[in-house]
Amino acid sequence: MRTIEELEKLYTTTLEGRLTGLEDMRKKIVKTINIILGVVIGTIVLMGILGLLGFGIIVVIFLGIVLGIALTHGKMKRYRAAFKSQVVAEVIHLIDDSWTYDSERHIPLNDYHTSKLFTHGVDRHSGDDYVKGRIDKTDFEFSELHTEYKKVTTDSKGRTQTSWHTIFKGLFFHADFNKHLKGETLVLPDTAQRLFGKFGQSLQKMSGRGELVKMEDVEFEKQYVVYGSEQIEPRYILTPVMMEKMVQLRKQYGHELHFSFVGTRVYCAVSITKNMFEPRIFKSGANFEDIKEIHHYIALIEVLVHEMNLNTRIWTKE
């Protein structure tokens, strides 16, 4: 894994200059937004003086939003594309220059479904920042992914309202596990036991995710719940070392981690609510801390492969 010192060198020699160059694009976007905001506020104040407040405020605000989108959409798109190609791509290639990166693609929804990690039906999905590569012997893919379901409600007057709810948002990753697994093993955040204690254990058994598999690692059991097609294979997969590393990863990164072992792949979904690889608009992007944060999330994939010992070929594919 590349060190912070190497990242600092890349920032000093390459990225800082590029980010400074992108500042003109960012400032033009902010200036346009401020002008439109000033016009909207000024118009509302004038309407107040003339006694024209009421529904007109809604119209002015709506027109301001439409105008803002029309005048900034193209600039935002160009700024984002430049940031991805000149900055994010460089950080990825610092970690490993053989990895391929596509800022517009994401993990296919078919892989998401294959993982069996989330059971709720998906009505809408999006994502970006797709990376594909190999770490030693292990091939992998990951991207940002956001899946949602739609809920339609009807009020007492028969009017319908549609709302969207997140199923998963964060980094979605899968890698070679180097074995044809006979069954499926899920390792999920143990929210039930954390919230409800012993009663939560009863809820675990009624989840419908498969057989509840109790592991002997006490700390692991506090953080995760394991379901399997049967009892034996999950115990071969989840070695003491792997369980210890899963606990460490949860503590180190502070995000909910979902794992599954299906077919010949290990899947991992890291729940992160923020957009990780997007440029800032209302704050200068020319600072090292933002670059370090991008590196932190990308390097998580390398950490997962090494910490879970995916390069240790204790099994061979049958």
Structure description:
This protein is an alpha+beta fold and 318 residues long. It has two domains: 97 residues, no CATH class; 205 residues, no CATH class. It has nine helices and nine strands. It has a nine-stranded antiparallel sheet with strand order 1-2-3-4-9-8-5-7-6. A hairpin with a 2-residue loop joins strand 8 and strand 9. Helix 1 packs across helix 9 and helix 2 crosses helix 9. The two termini are 31 Å apart.
Helix content: 40-55%
**How many E strands?**
9
Could you give the distance between the termini?
Answer: 31 Å
Unreliable stretches covering 5 or more consecutive residues = none
Number of domains: 2
Biggest sheet architecture: 9 strands, antiparallel
Keywords:
318 residues, alpha+beta
Quick synopsis:
By secondary structure, the chain is α+β, with helices and mostly antiparallel strands. The chain has helices at residues 4-49, 55-95, 109-114, 191-196, 198-205, 218-223, 232-237, 240-253, 288-307, and strands at residues 100-102, 124-135, 138-154, 160-176, 184-189, 211-213, 224-228, 257-262, 265-271.
